[in-house]
Write the structure tokens for this entry.
Amino acid sequence: MKISPLAPAIGGRIEGCDLTQTLEATQIRQIQKAFLEHAVLLFPGQTLAHQDQLNAARIFGESGTLHRPREFQPKAYESLPDGIMMISNIREDGVPIGSLPDGEMMFHHDMIHREIPDKATLLYAVEIPSVGGDTWFASGYAAYDTLSDKWKRRLEGLSARHVYHYGSTQKGDEKGTPAFGEAAHPIVRTNHETGRKCLYVNRLMTVGVVGLEATESDEILNFLFDHCEQDAFVYKHQWTIGDLIVWDNRCSMHARTDFPGGERRLLFRTTVKDTQAPA
């Protein structure tokens, strides 16, 4: 098994690992160590059944529980085991068979609107468009480490509020509907498995700094959004069928680029629970 960097700030590629096979204990330890070191791992060339993907998720912890809203529960879901979600723009009878079907999606952390957000997400590519639909990953570690001491002091003790409206891919398109969920978390969180500090705000879901007036809150957040999304901190992944990617949701955020609406895109998603709330 060979592990190599994907980008200077984030990401590792693992070759020579067939996730349909039972892994040796030494391989599992290597993968777990690489996950904490790189935050994003790419396993290319996989041919995974749903159970294989669920087994892969268990390398990193306890499988999470995925929410499947009614508007994304057509017949297509009847054959899926618990713990698997479809991310797809494919439609049957005019209704998407999966979640988050269309277009660009701003940088975000999965489930940041929960008290205990997910530890990790795994995404497996089955059908991809000819262009676009790429996923970009940004390092919260690198974003924090490169802040000035003045900014680090300013952010000490501050928390931000995060709101999510199900299906939204752009901030502001919730159209007045009640939030699917919301929570407040430290702007600078520490990954309890590595002890490293990282920035934990994102452009899609972070709406305000707790206890600050809107003007100051907006100034802080707009600076942090721009800072976190610098190319120097980002790995830009162009999907190939058979790619499985797992990312540490505590110290990385991700975004999706636009793609042609008339071309099919289908990926399967699993998650891993965390054991502690952000702190």
Notes: The chain has a mean pLDDT of 91. Residues 2-272 form a domain with the Double-stranded beta-helix fold (CATH 3.60.130.10).
